[in-house]
């Protein structure tokens, strides 16, 4: 097993156990068979996922001297509920059919409606149910976080950051919607969305929560590590996501090939391609990007533009530079050595992943 | 001013001030003009609303001996953020165009998209933005509740009830979606949805939170009052809502005439009508209920069936009985006299309202 895999796998089991325990505590509220489908949908959805955010939180905790504390696994695992909520709502907003190799939540409920031959629009029922399922996971995430069992003093210091993370997440998602709608994304604006939409919330904030929970204070070095390591790994993570959304293998990503192209995502990758595209290449992007009917040939033509303009190589170069800078900052931080090794491995795992 | 109006108005100003203070604390995060529209949409939406849930919470607090405590107004006002979130998501799920006499949140964002001539579907942008705005209000509701400034011991006792209220709210909304989709609502199943969807969350839980925050314990008499007064006022409140959704005056409700009929809502009122309808009357309901194009003539024909089957009178009778029982239970409870008077007036206001 590689070091990257170990840094994730070591906490995967812990997180899974904590999620199962939390969901089991909710189960008595879902004994009505009509409601049981909500709980099963949550469980099936949560079975997937890389547990990346819990891992950053866990290793942040360890980095600041946190020891073997059962409460931490609940606090960390709560971030996986938040991520599940965000993905379920995201798929409604993007009208995505597939997630983690399965039908997206709204499609799952749409199918239940269609198979039962119920009244009204199956699409509307699917979307409404998925909005509610996402809400349930959102409120559960807060409940699980608060009830972790960690010391009240630790939670009190971290809570304002947790609150702000949620506001920032919703704002970042809105900026992303806006960026796709305005369609005028420059390289800079796309990079800003990458940071706000995912970078901060996927890496910086989980890491910060772990650090602050253990330190019970927000030291200057914590801020420095969160910005210099956290934000840079976060952006690189999102850039990798952008690349996988165009070039990823469906068997590994669990999403159709070129899905981001069909959805018209205005990513850093696309902005970089347009910045050095010939008029003919620009026309290809203008004509094909965001076409919901885009076929394999269209995906191939857009991929060619992204490669030929040098955008793919440029993004790979950016990922490498952000990663190098992050690892350098990590080397300077006054943290526990075992956590330093694990956070280095996590940074590599998050930015070189294929799924 | 009537006693009912006074019991609401006396806390309306307090709640408005608390909401303004909370939103002002969020303002620095919304200095980016792209994000400022989210905050204005929240402010405009919150300007409406009857502050009914905060009122039940406030008078619950006073009933259990709570004094003049600034923190309570924040805890109570947080329920208005929750209600705003639920309505915004509800309107997306029901595809409702109008709320509180203004375009619903998703229509507001849809219009921004259309007027700017942005890319992609204006409908999808509107719905996505409204989902995120609802999420923002949902997380803010929790944040405002926790940061009320009330004694940590009081919050600790009430928190599990607050958590459960949120789970129950999402489940109730899902049961409502299901009820409309299955379309087989019996009188009993419609009554159950009325209790779960709105009854508990509109009256019982806000009241319970106020009582428990003041008592810092969950006494048997609190439970009794919450069930015997809270649930009964809650169901009567929802029955009034059902009647207003069919017979309400658009100038007062802020929603188009017969809106619930067009949306095909399977309410207690409809279930009661179907239970004693002739085959011809049943055919009218089957043909017209849920027709999105339903015109004034169709609304009139459905209203006639509801009146002629005796369903309207039956529902009015139920409201009266629930109210009488609730007031009787209120009379037995060991609570402060001023709060008893106010809760009696509130029960009347909630069940005889015209908006």
Automatic annotation (TrEMBL), chains A, B:
SUPFAM superfamilies: Terpenoid synthases. It holds the Pfam family polyprenyl_synt. Keywords: Magnesium, Metal-binding, Transferase. GO terms for biological process: isoprenoid biosynthetic process. The keyword Metal-binding applies. Its cofactor is Mg(2+). The keyword Metal-binding applies. GO terms for molecular function: metal ion binding; prenyltransferase activity. Belongs to the FPP/GGPP synthase family. This is Geranylgeranyl diphosphate synthase, type I.
């Amino acid at each position: 097993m590689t070091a990257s895999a170990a840094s994730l796998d070591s906490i995967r089991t812990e997180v899974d156990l904590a999620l199962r325990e939390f969901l089991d505590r909710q189960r008595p509220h879902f004994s009505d068979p009509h409601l049981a489908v909500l709980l099963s949908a949550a469980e099936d959805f949560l079975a997937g996922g890389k547990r990346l955010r819990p891992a950053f939180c866990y290793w942040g905790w360890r980095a600041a001297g946190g020891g073997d504390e059962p409460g931490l696994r609940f606090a960390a695992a709560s971030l996986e509920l938040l991520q599940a909520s965000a993905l379920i709502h995201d798929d409604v907003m993007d009208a995505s059919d597939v997630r983690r190799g399965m039908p997206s939540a709204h499609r799952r409920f749409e199918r239940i409606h269609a198979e039962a031959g119920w009244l009204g629009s199956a699409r509307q029922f699917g979307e409404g149910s998925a909005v509610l399922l996402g809400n349930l996971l959102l409120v559960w995430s807060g409940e699980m976080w608060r009830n972790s069992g960690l010391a009240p003093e630790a939670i009190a210091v971290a809570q304002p950051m947790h609150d702000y993370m949620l506001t920032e997440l919703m704002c970042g998602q809105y900026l992303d919607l806006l960026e796709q709608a305005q369609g005028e994304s420059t390289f800079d604006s796309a990079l800003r969305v990458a940071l706000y939409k995912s970078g901060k919330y996927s890496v910086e904030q989980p890491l910060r929560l772990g650090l602050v929970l253990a330190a019970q204070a927000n030291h200057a070095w914590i801020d420095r590590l969160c910005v210099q390591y956290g934000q840079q790994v976060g952006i690189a993570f999102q850039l990798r996501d952008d690349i996988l959304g165009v070039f990823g293998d469906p068997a590994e990503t669990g999403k159709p090939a070129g899905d981001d192209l069909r959805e018209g995502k205005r990513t850093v990758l696309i902005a970089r391609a347009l910045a050095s595209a010939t008029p003919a290449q620009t026309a290809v992007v203008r004509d094909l990007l965001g076409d919901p009917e885009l076929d394999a040939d269209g995906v191939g033509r857009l991929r060619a533009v992204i490669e030929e303009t040098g955008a793919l190589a440029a993004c790979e170069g950016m990922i490498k530079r952000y990663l190098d800078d992050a690892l350098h900052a990590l080397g300077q931080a006054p943290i526990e050595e075992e956590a330093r090794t694990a956070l280095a491995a996590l940074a590599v795992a998050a930015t070189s992943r294929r799924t």
